[in-house]
Amino acid sequence: MADGMDMASIEETFRRFAVHGDTKASGKEMNNKNWAKLCKDCKVIDGKGVTSTDVDIVFSKVKAKSARTITITEFHAAIAELAPKRFKGRSAEEALPALHALLAGAAPSNTGVTKAAAVGGVDRLTDASKYTGSHKERFDADGKGKGKTGRADTVVNSGYVGNYKGVGTYGDKVAK
User: Fold this and answer.
1) Coil, strand or helix: which one is 159?
2) For the stretch 86-115, what's the b/e string if a residue is b when 16 or more beta carbons lie within 10 angstroms of its beta carbon?
3) Are 56 and 40 a contacting pair, CB within 8 Å?
4) Among 21, 29, 52, 61, which residue's Cβ finds the most Cβ atoms within 10 Å?
5) Could you tell me the maximum CA-CA distance found in the chain, to the nearest angstrom?
6) Which residues lie in coiled coils (predicted)?
7) Chain mean position to CA 40
8) For every one of its 176 residues, what pLDDT tens digit does the chain have, with 9 covering 90 and above?
9) What phi, psi does 76 have (nearest 5°)?
């Protein structure tokens, strides 16, 4: 078995992956999606000895029958079962510390996550300086949207018709 410091870092890896992508997760249980992500990110899945199917089978084997998640003790049983498959030429006693070394201190990665691209037509659509007419009024001088004030007509109860430029000049005209 690995030393205490190594176990602490492996359990910290478990907690990091257990809460990844789920705001309500406590870090005490891990679902199958996060288990598969852990195995993929930590290079437990190598495509030859361990595949994603193997990872799913091991998850189903170690979890309780009606449960949808695994606990930390079931996690240790799962990695103990995957270790000999991942390191084929080694004995189970040698393979487990090698797998612990892969898992120690790992965190979920966001590589391959789709990013918003601003190319081609998207650039033109998001450039507020190119807007004309009434759409131009929806943005301030910096190109930031004004929100509701930019698209809602405000009612002025002055008694004049909307868009009348001479508001408040009636008294001046009558006095002349």
Assistant:
1) coil
2) bbeeeeeeebbeebbebbbebebeeeeeee
3) no
4) 29
5) 107
6) none
7) 17
8) 455 667 888 999 999 989 988 888 888 999 999 999 999 998 889 888 899 999 999 999 999 999 999 999 999 999 999 999 999 888 888 888 988 888 888 888 876 666 666 666 666 776 777 777 777 777 777 777 777 776 666 666 777 776 777 777 777 777 76
9) -65, -40
Closest CA to 78 of 123, 31, 113, 119: 31
Q: DSSP letter for 145, please.
A: B
- The three-state (H, E, C) secondary structure of 82-120, written as one string: HHHHHCCCCCHHHHHHHHHHHHCCCCCCCCCCCCCCCCC
At 66, list the tokens: 């009606």
**Distance from C-alpha of 61 to C-alpha of 77, rounded to nearest angstrom:** 10
* pTM passes above 0.70: no
